[in-house]
Backbone:
């Protein structure tokens, strides 16, 4: 919400209630109901909507579909949310980290694999170490293997790395875990899935400033490489990765580091295409330069994203 103090424009959160607060949901219900109705009119199904842990933060979970449609739905949903908020005199933003003392905002992505309408990521009879199929494990292992180089696609701004920190539910170390919300890749067993089985995995190092088409293309490329090479996952991390940091690789802590990882990774030149890759790297380096020279530039991100 916008306030004016001493003639200066200031922004303050919609509220400061806790995760899944009903009072927060009640206060925002006129806005949320309009968002929900607008998304329904666009045939975008909402599976869950609740107050999140950040100040004035809500989470809207969209129903799964194929990657291209999911990217479309995400773009339309962002536009709907921002437009409805503006109509009510509010500013909705998807910027990863506006207030450094807050949790930040992500755009977590859940990935599964299907064939003829059946989930083939999940184990189905064959022996499995983790409750996922060999195909599922190889795909996820490819994503884990290439994750540092995926970040320029999924965490595209210097500001993105203010969110990818320990104990921020974004995943700061190169690891995966079963239902571990501090791992950047979380193997998930949602309600309805048989005990011990994994139906999909969640990528937490993905934020609202990312182009979802490019982000998903990078993830799929890495997964395909895992399938080609029949990669295996290391042992999962069950506890807080920050406690085990002496034995884990830290993910890139800046956009510069993640771009360097991308430049060293030959996979994306093959899968994404050299011309597009050169353009993406060029834009990322330009953003690094701009925000290093404009220290307050991140404050304008709430209007752009």
Residues:
């Amino acid at each position: 919400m916008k306030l004016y103090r001493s003639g200066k424009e200031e922004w303050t959160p919609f509220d400061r209630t806790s995760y899944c607060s009903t009072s927060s949901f009640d206060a925002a219900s006129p806005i949320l109901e309009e968002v929900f109705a607008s998304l329904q009119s666009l045939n975008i199904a909402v599976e869950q909507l609740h107050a999140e842990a950040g100040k004035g933060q809500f989470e809207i979970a969209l129903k799964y579909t194929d990657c291209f449609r999911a990217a479309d739905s995400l773009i339309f949903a962002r536009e709907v949310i921002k437009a409805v908020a503006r109509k009510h005199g509010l500013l909705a933003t998807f910027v990863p980290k506006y207030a450094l003392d807050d949790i930040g905002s992500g755009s977590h992505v859940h990935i599964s694999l299907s064939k003829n309408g059946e989930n083939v990521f999940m184990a189905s009879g064959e022996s499995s170490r983790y409750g996922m199929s060999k195909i599922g494990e190889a795909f996820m292992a490819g994503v884990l293997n290439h994750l540092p180089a995926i970040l320029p696609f999924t965490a595209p701004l210097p500001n993105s790395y203010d969110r990818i920190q320990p104990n921020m539910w974004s995943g700061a170390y190169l690891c995966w875990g079963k239902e571990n919300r501090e791992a950047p890749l979380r193997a998930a067993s949602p309600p309805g899935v048989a005990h011990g089985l994994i139906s999909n995995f969640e990528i937490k190092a993905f934020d609202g400033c990312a182009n979802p088409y490019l982000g998903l293309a990078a993830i799929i490329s890495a997964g395909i490489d895992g399938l080609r090479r029949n990669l295996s996952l290391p042992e999962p991390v069950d506890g807080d990765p920050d406690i085990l940091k002496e034995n884990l690789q830290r993910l890139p802590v800046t956009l510069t580091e993640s771009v360097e990882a991308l430049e060293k990774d030959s996979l994306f030149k093959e899968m994404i295409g050299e011309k597009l890759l050169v353009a993406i790297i060029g834009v990322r380096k330009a953003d690094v330069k701009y925000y290093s020279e404009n220290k307050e530039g991140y404050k304008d991100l709430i209007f752009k994203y």
In short: The mean pLDDT is 92. Residues 105-305 form a domain with the Creatine Kinase; Chain A, domain 2 fold (CATH 3.30.590.10). DSSP finds nine helices and ten strands in the chain.
